Task: inverse folding
């Protein structure tokens, strides 16, 4: 969790530098995934439709809440593939698997363009379920420390191969 120290000017300067660097960052979508029922792994699909107020059309986690869309960097999954090589897209219940952007470094409120949709980051990380199969097998789960969640602020479609771009970084 970010905390302000006793040097607000230095922090503000560092934040400005981070924002300037983040604004030019982009990731590639490796896979898009859905699950029709809660409590099951997601599976890759050709495309996902993102809807304002709902999230991923047809996904069990869709709804009017703050975690409509989940994103996870593939680099975080790579770290666990050494222990569990069979890890596949959707195994961490992510809707969008990316490569090339440190998602967890984006502050809540950051706006992302994903495919033709726009997202607003609402949460960084989450608690791992006690019965998480991957955590039991590897001793670690990627989503709690590396995943982010967002709401849809403009409808659109996202496919593997699309870009995820930082549009605006929140100054919170």
Result:
């Amino acid at each position: 969790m970010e905390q302000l120290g006793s040097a607000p000017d230095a922090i503000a300067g560092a934040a400005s530098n981070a924002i300037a660097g983040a604004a030019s960052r982009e990731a590639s979508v490796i896979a898009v995934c859905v699950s029709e029922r809660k409590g099951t792994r997601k599976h890759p699909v050709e495309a996902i439709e993102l809807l304002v107020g709902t999230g991923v059309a047809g996904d069990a986690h869709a709804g009017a809440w703050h975690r409509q869309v989940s994103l996870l960097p593939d680099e975080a999954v790579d770290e666990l593939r050494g222990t569990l090589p069979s890890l596949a897209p959707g195994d961490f219940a992510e809707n969008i698997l990316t490569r090339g952007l440190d998602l967890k470094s984006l502050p809540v409120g950051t706006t992302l363009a994903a495919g033709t949709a726009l997202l607003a980051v609402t949460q960084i990380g989450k608690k791992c379920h006690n019965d998480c199969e991957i955590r039991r097998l590897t001793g670690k789960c990627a989503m709690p420390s590396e995943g982010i969640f967002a709401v849809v602020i403009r409808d659109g479609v996202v496919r593997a191969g699309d870009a995820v771009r930082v549009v605006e970084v929140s100054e919170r």
Summary: The helical segments are 8-22, 74-81, 133-138, 143-146.
